[in-house]
Amino acid sequence: PPAVLGATSSWVPEIADEPLLDPGALRDLTGMGVEVGVHGLDHTSLVGLSDAELVRQTSDARQQVADLTGTLPRAFAFPFGAFDRRACLAVASAGFEVAFSVFDDAGRYAISRVDVNATDNGQSFRLKLVPGYRRWWRASNRLGPVRRTAGRLLRGPSTLDPSPAGLPHQP
After folding, report:
1. For 162, phi and psi rounded to 5 degrees?
2. CB atoms within 10 A of CB 34
């Protein structure tokens, strides 16, 4: 999100004080061959926004990242993985080739991805890399309490979380 480059990840309570890349570091990434996408202008959920705000969060954010990196971004990732029909249309209208959600698939402009977050530790991250993890996770959604308990057991204390018990996943 270009409007918060150099700030902190205040929207993630577990790591609210973690610094985000600054503009120079973002430019360095592109110089190393990393493709940079857009995650909104300031990590605001796009669900229910006005037309003008959707343009700011998609088109304007895309142009700001392009101005920083020298390349128009092709991909968009919805903040918090959340989207609605209007958000998908705004992303498409902004010229993105693809967009990623977290929990639900809804075509080219909302392809679900595996959520890696501040509560993950090495063990839970490795599990998320196993082929078939997404299918298992979706099936386990029907068994919410069982999945949450399994997740807490797998995560254990997070290396990013100072609390001894770790925190449950917050979608």
Report:
1. -70, -15
2. 10
Q: pLDDT tens, 32-86?
A: 999 999 999 999 999 999 999 999 999 999 999 999 999 999 999 999 999 999 9
CB 23 within 8 A of CB 6: yes
33 alpha-carbon distance from chain centroid: 20
Nearest to 58 by CA among 38, 74, 72: 38
C-alpha pair distances (Å), 46 with each of 7, 105, 113, 135: 20, 16, 17, 26
Measured between alpha carbons, how far is 22 from 4 in angstroms, rounded to an integer?
9
pTM of the complete model beyond 0.90: no
Contact 46, 79 (CB under 8 A): yes
What does residue 85 show for φ and ψ, rounded to 5 degrees? -60, -45
Burial of 23: CB neighbours in 10 Å, binned 0-12, 13-18, 19+: middle
